[in-house]
Amino acid sequence: MNDINKKLSYVDHLAIVVDSIPQSVKYYSLHFNCKVRYKDSTWAMLEFENINLALVSKDEHPNHIAIVDEKKVKSKDIQFHRDGIGYLYIQDPDSNYIELIDRKS
User: Which of 4, 6, 44, 65 could form a disulfide with 39 if both were Cys (CB 3.0 to 4.6 A apart)?
Assistant: First the structure.
């Protein structure tokens, strides 16, 4: 899988579970130079210089890392976010969640 001639995988975002979306958006916006790309009552997406940070509700999504993988997301098990991005959750050998998404968010 680690072929030096292949393009490196693209990490789109990290997602962390928070207790309050509005409170967490306020905290990150106040303490860091980031842009709020999206916010509702269940999740928010913050844009930083080098990566996006998703703030998610416990009942909506697990803590995860999202990696763009157009090929693997052609599965029959694919689901779609409200913004139309296709996704599929898998777990690594240590039970960490990886969200495979079909394009950059």
Answer: 44
CATH 3.10.180.10 matches 10-101:
yes
Strand partners, 44: 39, 55
Q: How is 6-55 classified by DSSP, letter by letter?
A: SPPPEEEEEEEE-S-HHHHHHHHHHHS--EEEEE-SSEEEEE-SS-EEEE
Q: Residue 56: is its pLDDT beyond 90?
A: yes
DSSP 81: -
Task: List the beta bridge partners of residue 100.
Answer: 67, 88
Q: Is the dihedral of CA 23, 26, 29, 32 positive or negative?
A: negative
39 beta partners: 44
The amino acid sitting at 80 is F
pTM: 0.85
